[in-house]
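Hello, quick one for you while I still have it in my head. No rush at all, and the record is pasted right below.
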Amino acid sequence: MTNITIRKAEGTWVVRAGGAVLGESQNVLELSEGDAEPVIYFPREDIAMAFLDESDKQAEDTAKGTANFFSIVTKSTTLENAAWSYDAPSETAARIKGHLAFSTGEKLAVERV
């Protein structure tokens, strides 16, 4: 099983999609898993959930549990399954419950400001 480390990320973080700020938080968590790039998780209460539509997609992760996906609706496009959360994470990943992570790319950015 992959070793998971979760810690509070320092500073203020923002997530932007299609030029709009979806959220800003000083309470993000950084999840590190093996050799993979760390993933930033935002508390749900710091995200403009009106821009997110829960999709039917789910993915099972042996270390973290079942991920539920969300599509992000911006003025110009819909980013399919671009965010995810673990509503009932494993004991190892319990701290990310109530948090959202985002697939970064050309139209979606997560950055420390």
Summary: The domain at 4-112 is CATH 2.170.150.40 (Metal Binding Protein, Guanine Nucleotide Exchange Factor; Chain A). The CA atoms of residues 18 and 101 lie 17 Å apart.
